[in-house]
Amino acid sequence: MTKLAIMSDLHIDVNHFGNFELETLVSVLKTEKIAHLHIAGDLSNDFRQITRPFLDALSQDISLSYNLGNHDMLGMTERAIQTMDGQVIDLESKSLVHLAGWYDYGFNTSKTESEHLASKNFYWFDRKLDRGYTDIELAEQSLQKLEDLLQHAQPSTIVAMHFVPHASFIPVHPYFARFSAFLGSPKFHKVFLKYGIKNVVFGHLHHKHDEIIDGIHYQARPLGYKREWQMVQDFLKLYPHYVDGPTYELAKRYRTIKDLPEFQTFYREHLAKEFRQSMTIFH
Ligand SMILES: [Mn+2]
Q1: Would 188 disulfide with which of 53, 107, 150, 165, CB 3.0-4.6 Å?
Q2: CA separation (Å) from 211 to 91, 216, 221?
Q3: Å from CA of 11 to ligand 1 middle
């Protein structure tokens, strides 16, 4: 039996990961007796300079794998992305299939492809990526890759991916609706059904999800940015007088407390818990 933990969206550059964060993560993995850690994308915006040294350090203590997220692809050639994308890992009693995934605008059918592309090129992070194919083509390639990887899948096969595989997880709030086209594709769910997959873990959204759809157990426990962390909410419950303005302004709320000595102490005491809550564990 190989105990597997899946995490995603660590964003170690924005979240300023240093030795304390690395050591705390290793200690949580040891406490939980995790034999293999998989990271389902978005480690940082700089794979070579920031992510690689982190993975090298982490792999001293734990068996490790990862798939790319959109942030990891910044500055990468399409050839490097394709080479790294899509693997099957044998973990004794189960296997892990992992890939990045992509989007085909299928979560927002209210606009044309060219309208979606115009929005993307105006504000979306992925406008900085140079992949050389249309999003529709990239999603098709990813779905084909998934089918190839699932040829020998067992019911015990676990799939990890970065992008969102079902419309059920797409936020309906109007503020988020404009991003929905770039979050994933509903076609991934159909492939999982075709191959009898029972467990899928994804990331990208920075919202936690745990839901069974058509017999497929979908789980997402992304770490996300510090301003989104559970400990920020917990801290503000304990010190409500620091709540300044509407609580949905996450960035402002976090800026108010981040340098307080009380929060610094709270951070060190609660980081292990935050990491533990951001792991999906399979026994
Ligand atoms: Mn992402």
Answers
A1: 165
A2: 24, 8, 12
A3: 9
In whole angstroms, how far apart are CA 94 and each of 126, 143, 278?
Answer: 33, 22, 21
Are 223 and 10 spatial neighbours (Cβ–Cβ below 8 Å)? yes
Every domain of the chain and the residues it spans? 4-282
pTM score above 0.90: yes
Distance 41 CA to ligand 1 centre (A): 7
Q: How far apart are CA 184 and CA 195, in angstroms?
A: 19
Instruction: Output the CA 202–ligand 1 centroid distance in Å.
Output: 10
For residue 201, the CA-to-ligand 1 centroid distance in Å is 14
What is the fold of 4-282?
Purple Acid Phosphatase; chain A, domain 2 (3.60.21)
Terminal alpha carbon distance of the chain: 7
* Contacting residues for 50 by C-beta, under 8 A, at least 6 apart: 12, 13, 43, 44
Distance CA(135)–CA(102), nearest Å, equals 7
Question: Would strands 199-201 and 209-213 be described as parallel, antiparallel, or unpaired?
Answer: unpaired
Question: Which amino acid is present at 201?
Answer: V
